[in-house]
Amino acid sequence: MIRIPTKKHVDLKGMSLSELRDFSESIGEPAYRATQIFYWLYNRGISEFDAMTDIPRVLRSRLAEVARIGSIEVCRTKVSTVDGTTKFLFRLADGLTIESVLIPQNTRDGGKREKRFTLCVSTQVGCPLDCIFCATGSMGFKRNLTAGEIVDQVLHVRRLGENKITNLVLMGMGEPLLNYDNVMKAVEIISHERSIGISAKKTTLSTAGYVEYIKRMADEGRKCKLAISLNSVDDRVRSTLMPITKKHSVEDIHRAAEYYYEKTGQRITYEYILFEGVNDRDEDISRLIRYIRRVPSKINLIPFHTIDFVHPEGFASSLRPTPVARMEEFAQKLREANITVMIRNNAGEDIKAACGQLAAAQKKK
Q1: Would you say residue 194 lies in a domain?
Q2: Which of 17, 78, 105, 206 is packed most tightly, with the most Cβ within 10 A?
Q3: 99, 149, 175, 188: which one is catalytic?
Q4: Are residues 179 and 284 in the same domain?
Q5: How far apart are CA 190 and CA 82, in angstroms?
Q6: Quick check: pTM over 0.90?
């Protein structure tokens, strides 16, 4: 069980190094103590102040009186018998639950075959966007995660896993840009060399296309990679799939992507889930080619994974995945237009951990 402390205890989990310096000074300690605390919290992942062995015992006692080290709780893990993908169910201090997914991938680097382990983390409990192909939307929206809760997903998976996490994707439950400040603080903590050390350049943030926040990322010089869930360049079609299109049109998203590239020099990744007869036609290919060519980018084609287990209704219940042969043909036509294309696999589909399948059932506390 997670112990919920009294309000007088300040939660240090989720504090940045600068915030820990302010905290250290507030209790009469020199700023360098913050560097020590930061290292123990995130590099070593400790849960008790007594584990901070290079800090004087009297200070450890003082910390226990005024602060705490918050933690989420691992409730369950499921491992795919097909590809080794692992799904984690976490319970938060208020009883709500979220899911994270660790995906093993075989890659080639300089001719060598290597193993990459990508952790997909959540940024919200549920999601407010109601994309009809995503199971998370069926949960509704409960709240944003704190920076500490986002970081803690990484800490727990790192502790439980036998393999090093090499890449991070912010594309689990929720829309990351609607929790902008906490997400960016979490990325800063995770990427710090004295913390977990997963570089921001190996971190990808996936958004449904919140234009103002994409521009803010560019203006602030954020180093994490940007992926935009596109799925159609026809506003009418995209609106049926993603209601956010009524607020931010495909053209609005393009202008934001163009601004982002001009500011950062980083090319965009577009994510495109293929639905049979909806967005996989020849005219969709032609429109997509014209759209993609307007700013340096690449595209990830993603198979649609069933969400029947959340009992979708209406148009959502009619969605079917594009057949594999047609997906290959779709990709080939894009490549013939000199567009970089990757086809994502079905990692974790057998345990409902694939793209769009995360949906932790919530129980009242």
Answers
A1: yes
A2: 206
A3: 99
A4: yes
A5: 30
A6: yes
